[in-house]
Structures are given as C-alpha cells and as structure tokens.
Design a protein that fits this description.
The structure is a homotetramer. Chain A is built from three helices and five strands, in the order E-H-H-E-E-E-E-H. Chain A is of the alpha+beta class. Chain A has one domain: Thiol Ester Dehydrase, Chain A (Roll). In chain A, strands 1-3-4-5-2 form a five-stranded antiparallel β-sheet. The two termini of chain A are about 20 Å apart. Chains in contact: A-B, A-C, A-D, B-C, B-D, C-D. At the A-B interface, loops of A face loops of B. Strand 2 of chain A pairs antiparallel with strand 2 of chain D, so a sheet runs across the interface.
Chain lengths: ~150, ~150, ~150, ~150
Amino acid sequence: MTSGPSSPAEPEFPISTNSWVSTEVRVRYAETDQMGLVYYANYLVWFEVGRAEFCRQRGFAYRDFERDNDAYLAVAEAQCRYRTPARYDDLLLIRTRVEEFRKRTIRFVYEIVRKDPQTIVATGSTLHVVLNSQGRPKSFPAAYRGYFE
Amino acid sequence: MTSGPSSPAEPEFPISTNSWVSTEVRVRYAETDQMGLVYYANYLVWFEVGRAEFCRQRGFAYRDFERDNDAYLAVAEAQCRYRTPARYDDLLLIRTRVEEFRKRTIRFVYEIVRKDPQTIVATGSTLHVVLNSQGRPKSFPAAYRGYFE
Amino acid sequence: MTSGPSSPAEPEFPISTNSWVSTEVRVRYAETDQMGLVYYANYLVWFEVGRAEFCRQRGFAYRDFERDNDAYLAVAEAQCRYRTPARYDDLLLIRTRVEEFRKRTIRFVYEIVRKDPQTIVATGSTLHVVLNSQGRPKSFPAAYRGYFE
Amino acid sequence: MTSGPSSPAEPEFPISTNSWVSTEVRVRYAETDQMGLVYYANYLVWFEVGRAEFCRQRGFAYRDFERDNDAYLAVAEAQCRYRTPARYDDLLLIRTRVEEFRKRTIRFVYEIVRKDPQTIVATGSTLHVVLNSQGRPKSFPAAYRGYFE
C-alpha cells in the first residue's frame, strides 16, 4: 500500500502479482467538480467497480452471489486517502485485493493508479459484513469462501 | 428567460397557484462539474425530488405508495431544457405539476427557478408508467387517483 | 433509432456503420436504485461517455477540445426514452452519432443497447451550444469542424 | 461520538451544543441502490453538505471562501463508519464539527442521525488541506481563521 520509499528489489507498483486484481476506468465528466478534479465521493464508486471485477476475475459475478445466496456484502466502514488528484479523461487502474477474510466479514484494500505517468492517485479500504435481505448478519456462503481466500 | 411573453396581469412565475407544488434544493458541490456549473444529469435528480414533494404536499409519501400498492412509477421518458446555468450553492425552487393523468400513465412537468434573482434555470417533463415489482404494467391504484387529478 | 419494425434488408442494429461510434459500459451498483434497476438520470451520464468516445474515435480528445479552444459543448436540451430496464452488471453498448451539425450547435443521438440478448434499452438525444469559458456563445472552432461532419 | 454507553447526565445526542452545526437532508431515490438502502458513497456527499452548512452557520459561504481567497479545501482523507442503514425518504440530521484546525489543514467530523426514531446512521471524518487554484498548499486565509477555531 506503499506510499513510502521502496527498495530497488521491490518495485513500487507490482501490478501483476496474483493477489491484486486490476481493472480500468476512464474518468467521466460527471465525476469532476468545479475544482476541476474528481469529486471525492466518486473514489468509493471506483472501489465498488474494483470489487465487482475482483469477483469476476476470481470466477463469479457478484450479481450471482447476491441472487443465489440471499447474501449482501454491506459496507460497514470505508476510508480513502487522496494522494494526487485525478482529472477528467484520465485512464485509471483500480487494483483490488482482499486483506482480511473472516467468517462474517471481509476487508478489501484498493489502489487507484494513473497509468501515464504512473502515479498513485488514491488508496483505501472497505470493510463488509455479510447480511441477508432482511438485514441480518449471516456467515459467508461456504461455496464462495475459496474465491476470497 | 422567459419562455415567452407574459401579460402584465399574469405574473411570469405564479408560484403559489394550487396546481404547482414547490420545494427547494441548494446546489451541492457534488452536483457541479469542471465547467463550473451543475452537471446536466443532476436536473433529473431534482425532478425526482420535485415529484416526491408533490406527493407529500398532496397528502401521501411516495415511499408508502410503492410499499402499499406493489406499484412503481417507472420513467418511460424524460426531457429537460437547460435555460440558464445553475451554480454551486444556488438556492433553487423546484416546481412540479401533473400535466396528464391516465389510467396507467402520468406526466409531470417541472420548472427549476433560481430565487435571487428569479430566473428560470430549466424546464422539463417526465412520463411514467405504473408497473408492479415484476415489471408488469398495472392500473393506477384507485385510492391514489384523487391525489393526482 | 428504430424502435418500430425494420425491413429484412435493414438489420435492426447496424452496429458497424461508419456513422455510429460505439463504446461499452458495465452497469455499476452505484447506478441502480431501490427499484432494482438503473436510476434514470444515469443514462445521461452514459450519453456523455458516448460523446467522449465519439470524439476519441473521430480523432481527438474532448478534454483537449476544451483546453485548446476555450470552448465548451454546453447542453441546451436532453431527452431520453427508456425502453427496457438496464440492471446491475449488464454490459451495455452506447452508440453515438451526430444528427445535426451547425455553426454554433450540435445534436448527438444515442442508443443504449444490451448485448446479450441484444435489446434496445434506451434512445435519446442532446443538443449542445458552443460557449466560451465566460458562458458566451461562439462558433465551432474551425479546426474541429471536420471531425463532426 | 459515542456508540458506547452514555451517562444519564450526558444525553447521547447533545444536538444543540455550540460546537456542532446541524442541517437536514431527505434521502433521494437517486441515493438508494438495489439493496434497498442508501449507496455508501452518498454519505460523503452528505458530509459535504454538512461542511457547507457549517460554514454558513458560522458566518460565511464556502462559495465565497473559494472565490475571494483563491483557496480550496481539498480532501486528503475521508472515512465513514456505517452503523444503521438509511433508506429512501428518511429525514436525516447531518451534524458537523471541526475536530482539528491547523495552519494548513482542517479536520471535520460528522454524525448522520435519523430523526425518528433517533438513531446514529453513520459517523465519519474528512481531512482537508488548503490549496490554491494551481494545486499548491497555502496557509488558511487569516480572515477566516476565526470561523473555524
């Protein structure tokens, strides 16, 4: 997560490890504000895009997860550090990884990286609890545990 | 701004007639874009705020309408004319009126008016069809017809 | 544009003509609402994505158009017809075309198409006027006229 | 503030202290998602509404702060804890307070409270740095320091 110095042997953005999943977004005009930069709440939307793509690349659609299990990954906490501003039309990489996986909760961490020149735009995390459609906590569906571990 | 000439006897913004329902919004930073103005899709969100307040002032909550009738006013058409730009922190009046009410459809029209100085910011309309939660058309619940006519 | 019947010789979605430009979006959770469908204002955001991609595929970035010409394509009118609902995680094609190009205005038309099964989700149009950063009308920058004609 | 027990002498929501500033929002349909609850990024928009109202109630418009000082409160960090879900049409109180005020940074904290029955929906904070329109850090304009201390 790494905003500090990194050793020569350890590249700062190890983009192709097997633990991070990457996807791209291009900044929409709708996502900017009158400061000329991306409005800060939109980073949480990109985190959500990152989570969905994490699921897809691990082998399932989050849409099916909800539909087939009466289970929802409700957000309990979210945080974001804004490091360098993103601007309209920037092509950004969203990198997503599971940091902590428990019986009833899961924590994702994220890096938003501008591609050219490569710069960390933001880092963040979200903590989720598994709820059913009545809003009651439940355990992670067993069939899906392997996708996250 | 001025959508057409108005006679002296007929004020241009008859804000307190019984047919229009009014509510206020203040422009959020989130609603601006890098042009320094309100992003155009947000006017449709304000139309939705106007519809909800129309219902409330006519005597019911749209939330209850959905819940009690298994009925949704799905949007079939929307249009907006942008006349003068709205800016961050502007206090705006949303005026809403039913233009057409039929067995299975309803058309609302809207005016967005800046208060100081009073200027028409935008006008628009939305056409809705009544659907159940399965997405099938149904008739307007009888108990609610009086609220719209 | 075509929601009516089409002749056998004229396929209903001539996706690869040279006049339409296509790009894809995947529906985000943020774009849904409690009806379980995409919230209606988000279609206008997708229209904006379509316009930006239209420019890029024609040879320039809309970002540069603004920056290099002190010119903005401010929206004067927008309209959308919602034909079949889009849902979370749907992969959608946004098709964009210039319908009318004048000295100081331009009209884009759009089709949002679900890919599988192929269905028209929505159609719409936006009318734009060229403004400078002070909000005054100006003519289309000469160097860019060829991109739209 | 206080998710733990509170003493009888210390009411859990001391809404009318002089340090907290309160304002109301009503949840929009646009702010819900297909889970039937408010989408998590929208809480950051409400925090922004809280900040703007904090400024107004302290005696100035944030709009003027930007315009008169070439100064922007850019967000460096944001975090939110989601405690109980907010739903469409809920009337919410946004409570905002300055937790830390330094030469070049300011930290706001927030509580989102449902009014009936009174429940803490979310708590959070944002850290801001003062930037000029070129994105360079600057000190807080002297004339405004008194509003925040």
